[in-house]
């Protein structure tokens, strides 16, 4: 492995009520943030105070689960459209990056290119696009399809989709906008070109109707875990969300992605791999453990079964089965790596339904003091299992405040995290070149 930047990168995932499904019920969660924009603004400002590199918003274009009984026991039933929320948060922050999720399955390249270019312009170069292909079945039914594209077709479509978006982002050259009032030229026509794309899935003429952005292009983010997903990530992604919570598996994934990217002519440092981590911070280890156990105890079987079914496949019904018994036989589905991970875990550890859903609800959690969490970060970073982390704060408000006030200073004291922003764009936070 080549030398890496001196500091790890840290992102903050923004969710309604916090990452843990039951946090909104805990007194610390204050019944979730809901759609109160003041809470989201406070979260963003706190993340920027802690010098975190970006805010990240996940998304599905449907209710987050079709079992309304289970969904009603969480705060996930309502959530903002990411680019709308990020555009607002751009106005209350000055440095932190703004990464939003948008699916390639139920959008068109021109829409996505235009929206993320707009976010990049209005934020002064802080936009990132998390590229997803959609897994929730109701997303298909919300867009006139009875089911998703097949897994392989989703990723084939996604590759062409991203290619078209990048062509559109480059359809205005640097210096195209001159605003020459004397000669009556707002832009130079020779620096604005149609793309004339004709492919298997898309036909797009172009050019885009907004100029090249402050970053050249918004940063591309992806979470490739399946074979198709890893191929897409190696080819196009600059930030990659690793799915692993075990260090050896994370190291293998890290090495595979970096090697695959190099084989495609990319440098190792043009990609940052960030596993998801849920930091449960306490003044003592026991305080942290007690709080986490309180959250786990609030996971009732209705919610637990649904959490598991959402991972295994939309058509799986676990309600007839004893939660303290084993999983039934699960048919092949269209879920990809998340399903495979859960089934392998259940088989390897002989977990009951209850044990498996509780494991999934605590997956990626690191419970302890600020020093304990910093130790975990250092271990993964030094083992080339991660270049940093995508932080899932368990409860909101409170989770990010605990991290910024206690863990960030600990990491800075160890020389593992920056003490100021190096620039004002998302690319500058990661040391990425302008395309």
TrEMBL record:
<feature type="binding site">
    <location>
        <position position="151"/>
    </location>
    <ligand>
        <name>FMN</name>
    </ligand>
</feature>
<dbReference type="InterPro" id="IPR016215">
    <property type="entry name" value="NTA_MOA"/>
</dbReference>
<keyword id="KW-0503">Monooxygenase</keyword>
<keyword id="KW-0288">FMN</keyword>
<feature type="domain" description="Luciferase-like">
    <location>
        <begin position="21"/>
        <end position="385"/>
    </location>
</feature>
<dbReference type="Pfam" id="PF00296">
    <property type="entry name" value="Bac_luciferase"/>
</dbReference>
<comment type="similarity">
    <text>Belongs to the NtaA/SnaA/DszA monooxygenase family.</text>
</comment>
<protein>
    <submittedName>
        <fullName>Monooxygenase</fullName>
    </submittedName>
</protein>
<feature type="binding site">
    <location>
        <position position="101"/>
    </location>
    <ligand>
        <name>FMN</name>
    </ligand>
</feature>
<dbReference type="InterPro" id="IPR051260">
    <property type="entry name" value="Diverse_substr_monoxygenases"/>
</dbReference>
<dbReference type="GO" id="GO:0004497">
    <property type="term" value="F:monooxygenase activity"/>
</dbReference>
<dbReference type="GO" id="GO:0016705">
    <property type="term" value="F:oxidoreductase activity, acting on paired donors, with incorporation or reduction of molecular oxygen"/>
</dbReference>
<feature type="binding site">
    <location>
        <position position="155"/>
    </location>
    <ligand>
        <name>FMN</name>
    </ligand>
</feature>
<feature type="binding site">
    <location>
        <position position="59"/>
    </location>
    <ligand>
        <name>FMN</name>
    </ligand>
</feature>
<dbReference type="InterPro" id="IPR011251">
    <property type="entry name" value="Luciferase-like_dom"/>
</dbReference>
<feature type="binding site">
    <location>
        <position position="226"/>
    </location>
    <ligand>
        <name>FMN</name>
    </ligand>
</feature>
<dbReference type="InterPro" id="IPR036661">
    <property type="entry name" value="Luciferase-like_sf"/>
</dbReference>
<keyword id="KW-0285">Flavoprotein</keyword>
<keyword id="KW-0560">Oxidoreductase</keyword>
């Amino acid at each position: 492995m080549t030398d890496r930047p001196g500091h790890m990168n840290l992102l903050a995932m923004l969710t309604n009520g916090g990452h843990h499904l039951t946090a909104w019920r805990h007194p610390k969660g204050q019944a979730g943030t809901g759609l109160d924009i003041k809470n989201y603004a406070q979260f963003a400002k706190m993340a920027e105070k802690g010098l975190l590199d970006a805010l990240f918003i996940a998304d599905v274009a449907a209710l987050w689960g079709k079992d309304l009984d289970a969904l009603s026991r969480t705060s996930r039933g309502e959530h903002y459209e990411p680019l709308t929320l990020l555009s607002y948060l751009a106005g209350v922050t000055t440095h932190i990056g703004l990464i939003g999720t948008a699916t390639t399955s139920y959008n068109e390249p021109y829409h996505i290119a235009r929206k993320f270019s707009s976010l990049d312009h209005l934020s002064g170069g802080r936009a990132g696009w998390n590229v997803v292909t959609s897994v929730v079945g109701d997303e298909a039914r919300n867009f006139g399809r009875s089911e998703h594209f097949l897994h392989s077709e989703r990723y084939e479509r996604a590759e062409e989709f991203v290619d078209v978006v990048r062509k559109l982002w480059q359809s205005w050259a640097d210096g195209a906008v001159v605003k020459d009032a004397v000669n009556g030229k707002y832009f130079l026509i020779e620096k604005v070109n149609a793309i004339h794309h004709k492919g298997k899935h898309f036909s797009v003429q172009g050019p885009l109707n907004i100029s090249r952005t402050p970053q050249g292009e918004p940063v591309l983010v992806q979470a490739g875990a399946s074979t198709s997903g890893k191929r897409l990530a190696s080819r196009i992604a600059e930030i990659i969300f690793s799915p692993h919570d075990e260090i050896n598996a994370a190291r293998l994934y890290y090495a595979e992605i970096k090697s695959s990217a190099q084989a495609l002519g990319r440098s190792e440092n043009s990609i940052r791999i960030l596993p998801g981590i849920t930091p449960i911070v306490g003044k003592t280890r026991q305080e942290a453990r007690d709080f986490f156990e309180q959250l786990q105890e609030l996971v009732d079987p209705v919610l637990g079964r649904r959490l598991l079914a959402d991972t295994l496949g939309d058509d799986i019904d676990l309600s007839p089965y004893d939660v303290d018994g084993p999983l039934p036989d699960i048919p092949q589905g269209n879920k990809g790596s998340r399903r495979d991970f859960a089934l392998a875990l259940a088989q390897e550890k002989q977990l009951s339904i209850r044990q498996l859903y509780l494991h999934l609800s605590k997956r990626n959690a690191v419970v302890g003091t600020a020093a304990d969490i910093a130790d975990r970060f250092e271990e993964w970073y030094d083992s080339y299992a991660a270049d940093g982390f995508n932080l899932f704060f368990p409860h909101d408000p409170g989770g990010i405040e605990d991290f910024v006030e206690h863990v960030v200073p600990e990491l800075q004291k160890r020389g593992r995290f920056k003490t100021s922003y190096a620039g004002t764009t998302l690319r500058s936070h990661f040391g990425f070149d302008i395309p």
